[in-house]
Specification:
The complex is a heterodimer of chains A (about 260) and B (about 650).
Chain A: E1 2-6, E2 9-13, H1 19-25, E3 49-54, E4 57-63, E5 73-76, H2 80-96, H3 101-110, H4 130-139, E6 144-146, E7 160-162, H5 172-176, E8 182-186, E9 190-195, E10 198-207, E11 214-217, H6 218-227, H7 230-234, H8 241-253
Parallel strand pairs in A: 1-5
Antiparallel strand pairs in A: 1-2, 3-4, 3-5, 6-7, 8-9, 9-10, 10-11
Helix pairs in contact in A: 2-3
Chain B: E1 5-8, E2 11-12, E3 26-31, E4 34-37, H1 44-58, H2 64-81, H3 87-103, H4 107-111, H5 114-122, H6 124-131, E5 143-150, H7 152-156, H8 163-171, H9 175-183, H10 189-195, H11 199-202, H12 215-225, H13 232-238, E6 250-254, H14 258-269, E7 273-278, H15 286-289, H16 298-310, E8 314-317, H17 327-332, E9 335-340, E10 362-364, H18 365-373, E11 385-389, H19 393-404, E12 409-413, H20 425-433, E13 437-439, E14 442-450, E15 453-467, E16 473-477, E17 483-486, E18 489-492, E19 530-532, H21 535-538, H22 543-563, H23 570-579, E20 602-603, H24 606-609, E21 617-619, H25 622-629, E22 637-644, E23 653-655
Parallel strand pairs in B: 5-23, 6-7, 6-9, 7-8, 9-19, 10-18, 11-12, 11-18, 12-13
Antiparallel strand pairs in B: 1-2, 1-4, 3-4, 3-22, 5-22, 14-15, 15-16, 15-17, 20-21
The chains are: A alpha+beta (about 260), B alpha/beta (about 650).
Chain lengths: ~260, ~650
């Protein structure tokens, strides 16, 4: 455990906990767009900046998602400087990308006027990279990546591109995207993956063996099966989430005493 | 031109010259750290617009403030320059500049917009004038703008590899792209990735926080990654492709060392027919015969040489300039240009009593290493105890090699202390771990022999006195402190400096009194069409510098042959320009938390490895490389200069 101070609050936090997690655990609101608890810091939206100081560290502005707590760290989450920086960043984002619900909510909270800085060019999305990261590190498909712009360009993150061969159609990207730039649309037999409004992949859906709902893609099912060892495979059943829940609940049913038989 | 006004790294630039740029009249320089103005007519608003565009083009787009902020800044300056701006826009520029410089992820965003804040304060009138319809006609001069990107590590690297870029590619898991980025400037990543003295790491800003990045090991990692058979496809993609528009013009290169191979590679890519003449039966030059296999396995050299040969380069072994052919012969055979990269394979004698007695057991370090590397073990003196005199990398290579060829004891005699040793500190520690004994503050006085064989080295104790010209404290003899170290073999490794007596006589090529080849800025000798680089010009120097020379010469030769031009290369002017800008400030205080130290490299255990020539460092795994790459602060800096357009044509912009 290390002792840190957030605004005027003295805290003991576990080793390795970030300033952002510590603040949120105390109910202190620090806005973020690119942070997802399961994926760790991205450090790209920079809305979570705080002022930090401590032993060996002069007071400076740092992103809290990436700032691991250390003994004697003090952070200021809502200082006048931080509030003004956040407003500018949000203003820039509003001008440079199609505003999402999340962004508008943050803008309203901070009191940013919608048309702060007008810009002719717009980014297709926030370019937060959550979809790229989740596809690579959690799903293991690495179907999404950043384009590098044109030849000889120094741009590393131009827009998102899809490699449809690698895509298993799991839909996690659509689930995690904070601006709905990635979406999935299911018909009876087919799932389409839509990126920036254009269909980038079509995948065959499989039906739940109990209720017949077309609930996931064959490719995703295959990729899951490929990761199972023989023991796990033998018990594998193709079930939709709802049937799966019911199926396993029934299996667990016998383990508990029936209603009315209270345990003393 | 004189600077009339300026500020750089927070200090005023007083009367200093704007960086020299050949014949160009540099009117102003704008960059990460300030501005220098030499011409009072320079249009500050236009300068800002061009710089803002250059910064926008350099932004990688990963973090929001830099991507969106630099775009907004470029738009705002454009608007003001076109006379459509208002006071509010100036406020917006200040606000955005502050936000981008305090919240961006890397140094493009952090460093670049600061100058706008400074200019808004000190040149307010210029901006206000622009808002009110522009500048007066009298001040109107056309300027050409040119921007460049650099970084402390890139600047320190003699061949100026785009280090932040290839590290970024590693971080993203794009190893083939990373290797390609290195190969764009350097065809020998596996060799350099093992033996470079890494000036980049001494200029790494991460070192001001905790520890510098292991840049060399990262380079080695991507080079090795492409060697793994499973990744053959990567190798093809990353390989250098020979230009299809081949012209059959012939170029001769003397010496298949690092500079010759680099030069040959780039000339072959440009379509020249290149022949390398190598005196020894092996290619690689000093990298092969001067560096033991436990640091640089021969396979690596062979593979990288083979890659150069695949481009169509022919290597002729056992043929030396001087004994076998002359420059005139080459000319007669139709070679349009010659590059001399023959290195400096000589040694400096100890200049002590007994050295010239011809005792069995005395050998200069460079010959000791060369004989072992060429497999000439009969020419290596045998014994149980070896004493090496010297403190540089050759001395360390000799003393560590001693165990590997059967010596039981291995000693180093060095006249200053450990701190002053010029050898790589990692090597010094590795040698100690293997059991090398150090005798610091000890100088050789006399080689002792009996029956024609060495029996020991008489030494003197030293003390450190006042600092000498090199800044190191001068060793002073302690009178009457003589003592003897028993030895069967004594190796002299006190450097090769200032001794070029082995250099052959080259008609029409001027050399210094000591024998180094004299060259101009483009590395051309006094004989037209004959170029020289590497150790035969500089004296014994580091490998990467020789590669840098080889690369520059390839450009100079191409221009000489194709256009007959001999003016200084833009590349060399750029280099001089950037050198004048203090890209790395070692006194800078970087406010980020410390404590993410470098990922250490696995190596063979000292007592297991010391008896054979297996490679000591094992290199990074992919995971380790990505973790190390993630420590990079990406300290890119954008700089731009404006120069007066003499022909008054429309102002042109080129962003290098």
């Amino acid at each position: 455990m290390v002792s840190i101070r957030i605004d005027n609050l003295k805290l003991q936090v576990p080793d390795g906990m970030t300033a952002l997690e510590a603040a949120r655990s105390e109910g202190i609101d620090i806005p973020t767009l690119c942070y997802h608890k399961a994926l760790g810091p991205q450090g790209v939206c920079r809305l979570c900046v705080v002022e930090a100081e401590g032993p060996g560290l002069n007071r400076t502005v740092l992103p809290s998602c990436n700032l691991t707590g250390f003994e004697g760290l003090k952070i200021y989450t809502h200082s006048p400087l931080i509030l003004s920086l956040r407003k500018t960043i949000v203003g820039l984002l509003l001008a440079n990308t199609t505003p999402s619900e999340q962004l508008i909510e943050i803008a309203v909270k901070l009191g940013v006027e919608p048309a702060r800085f007008r810009s002719a060019r717009q980014d297709p999305c926030l370019l937060c990279g959550l979809c790229v990261k989740v596809c690579r590190s959690s799903i293991g498909a690495a179907a999404l990546s950043f384009s590098g712009g044109e030849q000889n360009s120094r741009v590393v993150a131009g827009h998102i591109v899809m490699n449809e061969q690698a895509c298993v159609g799991c839909g996690t990207c659509a689930n995690i995207c904070p601006v709905q730039a990635l979406r999935i649309e299911d018909s009876a037999k087919e799932r389409t993956v839509v990126l920036y409004g254009a269909v980038v992949n079509r995948l065959e859906l499989v039906e739940c063996e109990i209720c017949g709902l077309a609930h996931t893609t064959r490719k995703f099912m295959d990729s899951v099966l490929a990761r199972l060892d023989p023991d796990q495979k033998s018990g594998f059943r193709n079930l939709c989430p709802e049937c799966s829940r019911r199926h396993f609940a029934e299996a667990l049913g016998g383990l508990f005493p029936p209603d009315g038989d209270s345990v003393s | 031109m004189k600077s009339i006004f300026g500020t750089w790294n927070g200090k005023p630039v007083e009367g200093a010259m704007t960086p020299d740029y050949g014949d160009l009249k540099v009117a102003a320089v704008i960059g990460w750290s300030g501005i220098r103005v030499a011409d009072p007519r320079v249009d500050i608003v236009e300068l800002c617009r061009e710089y803002a565009r250059a910064v926008l083009d350099s932004s990688c787009g990963q973090c929001n403030p830099c991507r969106t902020g630099t775009r907004a800044l470029a738009d705002l300056f454009e608007k003001i320059k076109e006379g459509r701006g208002d006071e509010k826009d100036l406020e917006d520029i200040a606000e955005i500049s502050r936000a981008v410089s305090t919240t961006s992820m890397c140094d493009i965003g952090q460093s670049s917009p600061k100058v706008f804040l400074y200019l808004l304060e000190h040149f307010r009138d210029d901006f206000t004038a622009a808002l009110n319809g522009g500048r007066s006609e009298a001040k109107r001069v056309r300027y050409t703008y040119r921007s460049m990107i650099t970084a402390p590590c890139m600047q320190a690297c003699p061949i100026h590899l785009d280090i932040p870029k290839y590290i970024e590619e590693i971080k993203a898991g794009r190893f083939a792209e990373s290797l390609q980025c290195i190969k764009d400037r350097l065809p020998l990543p596996g060799i350099v990735g093992r033996v470079c003295v890494r000036p980049c790491e001494s200029s790494c800003r991460r070192g001001l926080v905790d520890e510098p990045l292991q840049i060399r090991h990262l380079k080695r990692f991507v080079a090795d990654y492409a060697r793994v058979p499973a990744d053959k496809s990567v190798k093809v993609a990353a390989g250098l492709e020979r230009s299809s528009a081949a012209s059959p013009l012939k170029v001769a290169i003397i010496g298949a060392g690092p500079s010759g191979l680099t030069c040959a590679s780039f000339l072959a890519i440009k379509g020249y027919e290149v022949t390398i003449f190598e005196m020894l039966p092996e290619s690689g030059g000093m990298a092969t015969v001067g560096i033991p296999d436990y640091r640089l396995p021969r396979d690596i050299v062979h593979e990288e040489v083979a890659e150069v040969e695949r481009l169509g380069v022919k290597i002729v072994y056992g043929r030396a300039l001087g004994p076998h052919f002359t420059l005139d012969d080459l000319e007669a055979e139709g070679f349009k240009a010659v590059f001399i990269g023959m290195g400096c394979h000589c040694h400096k004698s100890l200049d002590i009593e007994g050295e010239d007695r011809g005792y069995y057991g005395y050998i200069p370090g460079v010959y000791f290493l060369r004989n072992i590397n060429l497999g000439l073990l009969d020419e290596v003196p045998k014994g149980k105890k070896m004493v090496v005199v010297g403190g540089g990398n050759v001395a360390i290579d000799c003393v560590r090699t001693a165990f590997r060829v059967g010596f039981e004891e291995s000693h180093i005699v060095y006249r200053r202390s450990r701190k002053e040793m010029p050898a790589d500190s990692v090597e010094i520690d590795d040698a100690e771990a293997e059991g090398v004994k150090y005798h610091f503050l000890t100088a050789p006085k006399r080689i002792l022999g009996e029956n024609g064989k060495i029996i020991g080295l008489e030494c003197l104790r030293m003390e450190l006195g006042e600092p000498d010209a090199s800044g190191r404290r001068r060793p002073v003899v302690v009178p009457g402190s003589e003592f003897m170290i028993e030895a069967d073999v004594i190796v002299a490794a006190i450097g090769q400096e200032g001794d070029f007596n082995c250099m052959c006589n080259l008609p029409g090529v001027e050399v210094t009194k000591k024998g180094a080849i004299i060259v101009d800025e483009n590395l051309m000798t006094s004989r037209k069409g004959v170029f020289a680089g590497g150790d035969c010009v500089t004296g014994p120097d580091v490998l990467i510098k020789a590669c840098a020379h080889g690369r520059l010469v390839s450009m100079a030769i191409d221009r000489f042959i194709s256009a007959g031009q001999t003016e200084t290369l833009t590349e060399i002017l750029d280099e001089k320009f950037l050198r004048g800008l203090e890209v790395f400030d070692p006194s800078e205080k970087i406010d980020i938390p410390r404590g993410t130290g470098r990922v250490s490299v696995r190596h063979e255990l000292p007592l297991e490895r010391r008896r054979d020539f297996r490679e000591v460092d094992k290199g990074y795994s992919a995971g380790e490389a990505i973790a190390e790459a993630s420590r990079c602060l990406r300290c890119y800096r954008v700089v731009m200069y404006a120069c007066i357009d003499d022909d008054r044509s429309a102002s042109t912009v080129s962003h290098a």
